[in-house]
Amino acid sequence: MAPTAPTTPTRPEGPTHLIAVAGNSPGVGKSTLCRSLADWMRSTGATVDHFQEADILTRPAFRPVAEEFAGGAHSVRPETLIAATRAYVTESRAAGIDVLVTDALIPFVPSLVAWGHDEPAIARFLREVATAVEPARVTVVYVEDDPATALRRAVDREGPDWENWYLTKLAASPGTRSVHDLPSAAAHLRHETALTHRLLAATPWHVLTVNVADLDALRTAQHVRDHLAAVVDVKG
Known about the structure:
Layout: E1 17-23, H1 30-43, E2 48-51, H2 63-69, H3 78-94, E3 99-103, H4 109-114, H5 119-132, E4 137-144, H6 147-158, H7 160-171, H8 182-201, E5 206-211, H9 217-228
Parallel strand pairs: 1-3, 1-4, 2-3, 4-5
Helix pairs in contact: 1-9, 3-5, 6-7, 6-8
């Protein structure tokens, strides 16, 4: 009998970790934090994909999401979101990317609420997403502040045109039609924050909640890096 050739261990496909940054309101600094975390992860020698918020309109894996949203209903079926997320993670692993840093992607709660889905439906959705992204490890970094303060910060930064756009967008969606001004938007976001905490607590993911009320961008980034260093395999 011919000898059996020895097998060479293969390196598992990446990514080793998906870091999903989400915020409870515009103006909490999640995009700034995302950029900082992506730069930090690259500095450790990891290969990193930084999925920016606007990328959902251009990434190939999310083309069905963009097309469905633009199709007239201005909403996306949960199964379309799940399939796109699975495709994105699968393609990233096949490409050998070590870490994904996503901005306002997972857990999709604000979009699902706006489109009229109730808590049990969103909970089912998150269970399916958790299965779809396996075997990638997931850490959700949930950045929060008092919504009234954060919204005012966003308006000061973006201007009154942004305020009008944001309020119009919420008022036009089935799940957020009660919003008509900044106070009602803040009330909605407080409700959504409590909902998100309940939903994330039921997932298998590691969740890091960061209250930025007393933190600037640099201190926020350092705080998150300190915590992530304990759960993400990084060199420095």
